[in-house]
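Study this chain:
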Amino acid sequence: MPTLASLPVIQSPTADIGRKPEWLKVRAPGGPNYIRLKRLLREWNLHTVCEEARCPNVGECWEDSTATFMILGDVCTRNCGYCAIAHGKPAWEDREEPERIGNAVARLGLDYVVITSVNRDDLADGGAAHWAATIRAVRRHAPDSRVEALIPDFQGQAESLDTVIAAGPHVLNHNTETVPRLYKLARHGGRYDRALELFTRARQASPALPTKSGLILGLGETREELVATMRDLREVDVNILTLGQYLRPSAQHLPVVKYYHPDEFADLATAGRELGFAHVESGPLVRSSYHAKKQTAAAENSPAGINK
């Protein structure tokens, strides 16, 4: 194995670096389960972050009958520089969506489901009541299914966070996304201190609730900044961490400053474990909900455990 110092450095501070390295190439989706799930989701009028965010793992996950449901519409009130989801002024409200998602989870026979949403800063509670209704619907229709809630920051509203936690998710996930220095560049409307405060409040509200966060790499951060951010997340008792490569959705989005080598991801995973995370999922194609069920199981069975 090459040393980190000998790895190829593929980066540019001002422009996208172009062709992806071999380790980022994936097969185009199109298997029978992928086609079936795509059809069912259209019939049920459900959105997935897999499609909206152009996830590179959509073919693999959908072939495994796994999808991350996205609630509260497909238009986000924020315009983050790395995100492929459409932004603007949402004109969407669907009170029947929670029941449709609950039914879909039951019909698909999912024993682990990830739910996420766009930011809905236009709503007084940020959509928290809709979130809670969706979690309760899944638990009612599919009582054996575990629910991972990948939530927005609700603009720091403690009441909204409490509403979601009271609905009983099995894992609470909020993606920190990047290091503090890059927040103004990448996370329009987001605040680093608010992300950390969310986890502090979650631990106070539900001490045994497993928590999770994710970072995307390649926006111009340094290794030292990444490790410092990981340390901050451990200080607010985040249990599970995901690290994945940023892939530019279009020429209108932030450029890729660096493609990280798989060995660099392995090195950061080691650093994360040394900081005390119960599990670190780290690799070029890793996304927050990729292999989410396995991530949670690995964390629960690790020597560090969850909240031991």
Remarks:
- The chain has one domain: 26-301.
